[in-house]
From TrEMBL:
Gene expressing this chain: otsB
E.C. number(s) listed in UniProt: 3.1.3.12
Keywords: Hydrolase, Magnesium, Metal-binding
Functional summary from the UniProt entry: Removes the phosphate from trehalose 6-phosphate to produce free trehalose.
Similarity comment: Belongs to the trehalose phosphatase family.
Gene Ontology terms, MF aspect: metal ion binding; trehalose-phosphatase activity
Catalytic function, reaction form: alpha,alpha-trehalose 6-phosphate + H2O = alpha,alpha-trehalose + phosphate
UniProt GO BP: trehalose biosynthetic process
Name of the protein this chain belongs to: Trehalose 6-phosphate phosphatase
Cofactors, names only: Mg(2+)
Amino acid sequence: MSPDRFPADRLPADLVAALDHAAMVPVLLVASDFDGCLAPIVSRPEDARPLPESRAALLDAAALERTPVAVISGRALTDLARLSGLGDSAITLIGSHGSEFDTGFPQEITAGHRDLLARIVGEFRSIAADHPGVTVETKPVSTALHVRNATAGDAESALTRARRGPASWDGVEATEGKAVIELAVIETSKGIALDVLRERSGADVVIYLGDDVTDEKAFAHLRTGTDLSIKVGTGNTLAQYRIDDPYAVAAVLAHVAARRAEALGTRSV
Ligand SMILES: O=P(O)(O)OC[C@H]1O[C@H](O[C@H]2O[C@H](CO)[C@@H](O)[C@H](O)[C@H]2O)[C@H](O)[C@@H](O)[C@@H]1O
């Protein structure tokens, strides 16, 4: 970690004080979103990678006792593991906006779900074919229509067709994120995923970092006055703290890993 590139003093003082306090609790759960938090936003979803400093800090924290670490993402779990490079680590990865665990999905995915998803993907592919720069990402229980690389006109036209079409079908959960509309065929919640992790680990305090609409469901499940909710970037949020970008995320994670190591009497990494 280069202290010059990610100085902790660029973080809000009240956040640093709260992180220092959290580092001392018996069990600390550290969890983060992937795209826009660990990995800077890029134009092609397949090119997203975590900042090396953030990845290293997550691994450092996860190596400490009583410090479970998780990444909760909208990505398919296999894609999250591959892109993050954390697949074989001590870090818990949860995909599909909180609904895809390493043990599978908490609810049964039926033939009806699969048929509905196939119809949505078909419609999305038809929309993409009519709008240059629009692409379709497929996942196990959802699909994303990406408009980042389309002209403003094509982007709006594609989104409008998606909203009026498959987003309005019965059984479809629609979420609009960063230059994307995502349609899921089951209910997804990063908040419920956090509840599961909290329960499993017996965490006294949860730190969660997120930048997008689906992260608000995670923030909503955090406990005011105990947990730390950290919004990355602009936009309305339920989160208590706000930081600028993935570089600040790296600073937060490095600070937590170092303070936690000190609190546990482990040599700082
Ligand atoms: O929950 P997250 O880990 O934040 O995932 C949310 C979605 O992120 C990805 O799309 C976003 O990031 C791309 C790469 O930077 C960017 O090109 C795109 O415009 C963004 O919307 C991902 O492709 C989706 O599957 C995730 O659901």
